TrEMBL record:
Keywords: Aminotransferase, Cytoplasm, Glutamine amidotransferase, Repeat, Transferase. Its EC number is 2.6.1.16. The keyword Chloroplast does not apply. This is Glutamine--fructose-6-phosphate aminotransferase [isomerizing]. GO terms for cellular component: cytosol. Transmembrane segments: none annotated. The chain holds residues 244 to 604 of 604 of the full protein.
Amino acid sequence: EKAGYKHFMAKEIAEQPVVLGDALRHYLTLDGVNLPPELDFSSIERLTLVACGTAFYACSVAKYWFETLAGIPCEIDVASEFRYREPPMPIQSYALFVSQSGETADTLAALRYCAGKVAKTVAVVNVPSSSIAREADLALPILAGVEVGVASTKAFTCQLLALAVMALKAGRDRGHLTKVQFDGHLDTLRAMPGLMNAALTTADDIAKLAEQLAEAQDILFLGRGPMYPLALEGALKLKEISYIHAEGYASGELKHGPIALIDRTVPVIVMAPHDKLFDKTVSNMQEVMARHGKVLLVTDGKGVASAAEGTWAHLRMPEVAEPFAPLLYALPAQLLAYYTAIAKGTDVDQPRNLAKSVTVE
Ligand code: M6R
């Protein structure tokens, strides 16, 4: 079943262009999106997105999209905090619950808390027969196919896609996006499988870098804007399977503490497409380099041309229009974790202490 791959995780990383293509065919029509008409965002005052782990980071990326593409106030929380906070829920709001398995106990409890308090509860799940899908008012499939590896990979990018499509619909429902802008964003999403194939060709380079990363005690990931949650996701993936201590930070937070950690032994992985925040991130990166931190810059051709000099290494991604770079940059983040774990000889598909589905609190 591993289709010639050494691990399910490797297979699931590699099949992302294909499964994302399938999901795109489901969610995009010739001139719009295929979402249930009752998912109407026009008079919604707030969105709340709740999840755990990697699914929470998908929500964290989506918050940027719902705010910038649709102008909807959007709250996010991890389910284990949300459910005990007794948060007030405006009736004119939707609550979204994102879960690969659809069985995560805290996420299910958060959904039950919201039932009846909001206009609609919406499940974004990979397993359509799951408890979360059944109990929500509306369930949207992410169409990633069965995910076996404990480290979530293709489910993450498919969660991002479903959320991106929703944010675009919300943008149209609310008149926040013109038709031309909306069409442009759809084209960006349609191009994603091809871009992902190109990103996967960096695997051999990543495998070489990983041999050195595997020596590190601590690794930092930095990102800004929608790349900040991706930094968190990169760090989670790495610690889950390689057992190396890793932290993700918003680039701008570096000087508020974590820069004290930097020396020659600390690799700092900077996820920075050449977008409108690029220069800000580069100045944070230079602060790291001035303290002899070992920078791995993950960027595109323009980013390489303007900022790769003096870094320890760089990875070149294809160019991708804003704000959907997280869908693409997830792949090098996953590959970095995968090859670092391989270099350390850990059990990639069955990391210690972790379960695929967390059905206990
Ligand atoms: O099945 P779910 O999406 O609800 O699972 C949530 C988390 O347990 C899950 O994403 C976990 O963080 C993964 N092991 C991350 O790779």
